[in-house]
Design goal:
single chain; 308 residues; alpha/beta; Rossmann fold; 2 domains; 5-stranded parallel β-sheet; 4-stranded parallel β-sheet; 12 helices; 9 strands; 42% helix; binds phosphoric acid mono(formamide)ester; binds norvaline
């Protein structure tokens, strides 16, 4: 059994196997209904507990459907309505109890430390469904979605525009190292990636360019990605952050400076009219709805990988 907490914890070979499994399973069920089980039902008789400390639409839905398709069942736990490290029961004890009931846990948390603590005390795998530090399931789905449109990601150029210091950009930097693609981050200096991830990138020879000029960041790019300017629980002066990030909006003009067949990606939820215009997110180059769908397929192969 293995935990899935950060992309950097896995080898390139393991990550490639997860993508291939998602691709094959997706292909094999093209004729099936949305919640029908895969023929082999590898999760039959098993269950997943999901804990969400923060809101979620896609992660919640896609894991629930993924588990159904694998032949198992899921239970969603609201930390407010269970004993969850609030003084009446420690996280350690909650982890021990969950170990007795289910086969795998997915946790969305505001504190990456909670994931690590759960990981230590659970005797079953834990999957990171987003933390303040990383969002590995989303980035794996994005690599998969990119490859469906544009072929193998190795050697391609991806541009990340806007907030360069959040969970998504951290996981994207790790993916650039593991899948060997060129990553160009266009962000203001104030919102540049932090030292820890930059050191990891250096050590792992990531082909990473960081520039404060958005036009430079999208030049020769195969894919432009962005994210909310203010993440969930981001304790910042929102008005000031949005003002600083305004020149980094992905609009028609910025898209036109990338390769003509470049795609646009966004993990959603989106701040329409802020980090991206309606014209771009609803336009022909956007693959955002497929990104959301592919969360189901990638969650399935992450679950299988964790349990193998
Ligand atoms: N992209 C993503 O993780 O969406 P949710 O917050 O809706 O789960
Ligand atoms: N960076 C965003 C991602 C949402 C899926 C957030 O943490 O709110």
């Amino acid at each position: 059994m293995r935990n899935f907490i950060n992309i950097s914890d896995c080898s390139s070979k393991e990550l490639r196997a997860i993508i291939d499994e998602a691709k094959n399973r997706k292909q094999r069920r093209l004729e099936l209904n949305k919640s029908a089980s895969d023929e082999d039902k590898p999760f039959e008789g098993k269950s997943m507990a999901m804990i969400f400390e923060k809101p979620s639409t896609r992660t919640r839905m896609s894991f629930d459907i993924a588990v159904k398709q694998l032949g198992g069942s899921s239970i969603i736990l609201n930390p407010e309505s269970i004993h969850y490290g609030k003084g009446d029961e420690t996280l350690k004890d909650t982890a021990k109890v969950l170990t007795e009931y289910v086969d795998i846990v997915m946790l969305r948390t505001s504190s990456h430390k909670n994931l690590e603590e759960f990981g230590i005390h659970l005797k079953i795998p834990v999957i990171n469904g987003l933390s303040d530090m990383s969002h590995p399931c989303q980035i794996m789905s994005d690599v998969f979605t990119f490859e469906e449109s544009k072929g193998v990601i190795t050697g391609k150029t991806i541009s990340w525009i806007g907030d360069g210091n959040n969970n998504m950009s951290n996981s994207l930097i790790e993916a650039a190292g593991k899948f060997n693609f060129n990553l160009k981050i266009g962000c203001p200096k104030k919102y540049s990636p932090d030292k820890k991830i930059l050191n990891w990138a250096k050590k792992n020879k990531v082909n990473l360019t960081i520039t404060a000029k958005p036009l430079e960041a999208v030049k020769n790019s195969d894919c432009i990605m962005t994210d909310k300017w203010v993440s969930m629980n981001d304790k910042v002066n929102k008005k000031q952050k949005k003002k600083i990030l305004k020149p980094y909006q992905v609009n028609k003009k910025l898209m036109s400076k990338a390769n003509p067949d470049a795609i646009f990606m966004h993990c959603l939820p989106v701040g329409r009219g802020e980090e991206v215009t309606d014209e771009v997110i609803d336009g022909k180059q956007s693959v955002v709805w497929r990104q959301a769908l592919n969360r189901v397929h990638i969650q399935k192969s992450i679950i299988i990988w964790c349990l193998s």
